[in-house]
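User: Can you recover a sequence for this backbone? Please restate the input before giving your answer.

Assistant: Of course. Working from this structure:
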């Protein structure tokens, strides 16, 4: 079985899709896939499907959805599948108080992504910038769009989507940190322009855009990025930029040599370049 949640939902067995068209069975399949090999309690599944307003037939309806998923799984597995109907129940299994998908974590793209991210962070901390850049790019390449873009999520999956999207943004930031350390500032300009437009209050991304512009010989544009962010933060939140971003701005005004590309043992993000 191969399941993808980093974009449109996809689940295939022997090349055949087992993704149901109905909303609630899709939610169940997704929630089980995000936690392979782990029992998903019935109350959690019910909360995802109906929130706190459970219908009287909630348990019976949930069991019906599980049966529908097993039928799709059985069709995809075919008569040659392990153990016939018993094999299907071994894959989508019932346990006391819940259900689980008995598949390896490697079958789900999100777990492959998280393993690659962990490797990338480890390479970064060890000072292997080239290795970190390659691994983090491979992790981000697994994304085919926003997480679960075609699944109408309930309260449980909504939290999962927020977690995944935040992880994606942090990974993009770290990959850009590595690329800046490798002197790829000019290549980053278009990407960072789009990112700060999408995240207009994100200081970390703005600091990266400022550094990339500064190192590309566009000091005035770098200072303008700061000016626009400061005006936005004051207008929207009533706060000044963080101290480290203010120090980064001052360093650009004084042409601080520390802003030049510097390889070496120091680890850390661009945003923390002027942290105390």
């Amino acid at each position: 079985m191969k399941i993808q949640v980093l974009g449109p939902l996809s689940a295939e067995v022997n090349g055949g899709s087992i993704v149901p068209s109905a909303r609630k069975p899709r939610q169940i399949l997704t929630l089980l896939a995000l936690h392979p090999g782990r029992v998903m309690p019935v109350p959690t599944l019910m909360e995802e499907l109906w929130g706190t307003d459970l219908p009287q037939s909630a348990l019976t309806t949930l069991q019906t959805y599980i049966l529908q998923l097993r039928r799709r799984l059985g069709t995809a597995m075919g008569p040659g599948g392990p153990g016939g109907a018993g094999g299907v129940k071994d894959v989508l299994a019932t346990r006391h108080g819940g259900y689980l998908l008995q598949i390896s974590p490697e079958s789900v793209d999100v777990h492959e992504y998280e393993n690659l991210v962990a490797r990338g962070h480890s390479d970064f901390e060890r000072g292997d910038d080239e290795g970190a850049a390659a691994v983090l790019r491979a992790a981000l390449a697994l994304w085919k769009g926003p997480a679960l873009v075609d699944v109408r999520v309930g309260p449980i999956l909504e939290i999962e989507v927020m977690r995944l999207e935040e992880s994606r943004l942090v990974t993009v930031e770290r990959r850009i940190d590595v690329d800046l350390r490798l002197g790829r500032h000019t290549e980053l300009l278009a990407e960072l322009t789009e990112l700060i437009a999408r995240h207009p209050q994100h200081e970390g991304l703005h600091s990266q855009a400022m550094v990339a512009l500064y190192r590309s010989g566009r000091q005035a544009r770098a200072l303008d990025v700061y000016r626009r962010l400061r005006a936005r933060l004051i207008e929207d939140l009533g706060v000044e930029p963080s101290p480290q971003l203010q120090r980064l701005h001052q360093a650009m005004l004084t042409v601080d040599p520390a802003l030049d590309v510097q390889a070496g043992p120091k680890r850390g993000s661009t945003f923390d370049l002027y942290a105390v």
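That completes the design. The chain is about 60% helix and 5% strand.
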